[in-house]
Amino acid sequence: MENINNEFRNRFLIPAENGKEKIYFLGNSLGLQPKTTEGYVKQVLKTWSDLGVEGFFEGENPWMDYHQELAEMMAPIVGAYPEEIAIMNALTVNLHLMMESFYRPEGRRHKIICEAGAFPSDQYLLESQVKRWRYAPEDAIVEVFPEEGKDTINEDDILAAIDASKDELAMVLWGGVNYYTGQVFDIGKITKAAHEAGAVAGFDLAHAAGNIELKLHEWEVDFACWCNYKYLNAGPGAVASAFIHKKFHQQPMHRMAGWWGYRKDRRFLMQKGFVPGPSAEGWHVSTPPIMLYACLKAALEIFSEAGMENLRKKGKAMSNHLLGMLEKIQEKTGGEIFRILTPREESKRGCQISLLFNNSGRLVFDHIMSEGIFADWREPNVIRVAPVPLYNTFEEIDQFARVLENTLDKIKTA
User: Fold this and answer.
1) Residue pLDDT, tens place only, 332-367
2) Model pTM greater than 0.85?
3) Which residue ranges form the domains of the chain, and what is each CATH number?
4) Confidence class for position 98, pLDDT limits 50, 70, 90
5) Has residue 3 got a pLDDT over 70?
6) Which of 21, 70, 231, 387 has the fewest CB atoms within 10 Å around its CB?
């Protein structure tokens, strides 16, 4: 873990003011920029200037094959085969594309189970998809809520909801990690329950990819989508990714077709009649954004060197350390100012810890930011912090804890 503390941190550009590096605990929102990103983008620009369109076929890194290199680096991060990975579009666009293939209501089977309080984009996605099939959202979308007085969802309630709706259930679409509380869900168990109910299992992994251990192929997840700009550090508005289990690659499935998803060996024949590529690439639609691919390449190379197993080991240690510091502060303040939303169980949390404050939350957040610590504010009164293993340190966690404790002391004596 020492190497990850130093060697890999030095591979990133850390925000600084007056020559002093700030503490960046916002990898769950937008990861930091690798130092190699600029060079890879410039390489694409140079190829473009030197070769024009021939850059797709010539040069150091022909653009036609760029996707394969990225898929090979992404696969071990999410527990998949490279051919199960499509690097394309943006997260919600990819979810819509997956819904086109996997949400095919028939007879009584039309309902979708999701988590209550899912990220708004997912809520809008589901609403528009069921309306497209002329179902009322309040009937077709089944939300699973936390028990009364609880902050997180009991996984037994998820399984019970699946069982209760099994005769009408078409799909379970769930988040790997809840964006608000930081709760990690058992994707394998949810997938198994969905399949036993005769339904499809899909996942939004925006807060999971690059954060927690994933075994998408082994768990037989049908599809999953994620953005690459959070824990994966590919930059604002980065190109996103999708996973489609290989068992579907040869099946005749409905999809929103485009020429980049056409069989690669026949793509430039420009023939009528869509023939999808025999992998997840068959779900591609448009020509890929090569400069965004370059940004992702810079980030994935670092993940490949560090190893997801090593990163997860350090991530758990950092999360445990942060949680322990917060519990001490909470005990000292009598638990009156904030409570911890994120589950205490190690298997049910990743890097993010969410704190729910009383009415002083905004004051605490503003003071933390003024001390050079990047955290995240979520209405109505939540501060999220996410030390990540690639570029954050245990010393930064200690410093954050001191700043938070001093701030709370000032509030109590004010």
Assistant:
1) 888 778 999 999 999 999 999 999 998 889 999 999
2) yes
3) 2-30+307-413 (3.90.1150.10), 43-305 (3.40.640.10)
4) very high
5) no
6) 21
pLDDT in tens, 259-282: 999 998 888 888 999 999 999 999
Cα distance between residue 225 and residue 241, in whole Å: 6
Return contacts of 220-226, CB within 8 angstroms, 24+ apart: 220/191, 220/192, 220/195, 220/245, 220/247, 221/187, 221/191, 221/245, 222/102, 222/191, 222/248, 223/98, 223/101, 223/102, 224/78, 224/176, 225/91, 225/94, 225/95, 225/98, 226/78, 226/91
Q: Is the pLDDT of residue 411 over 90?
A: no
pLDDT digits (tens, 9 = 90+) for 122-135: 999 999 999 999 99
Q: Percent of the chain at pLDDT above 90?
A: 91
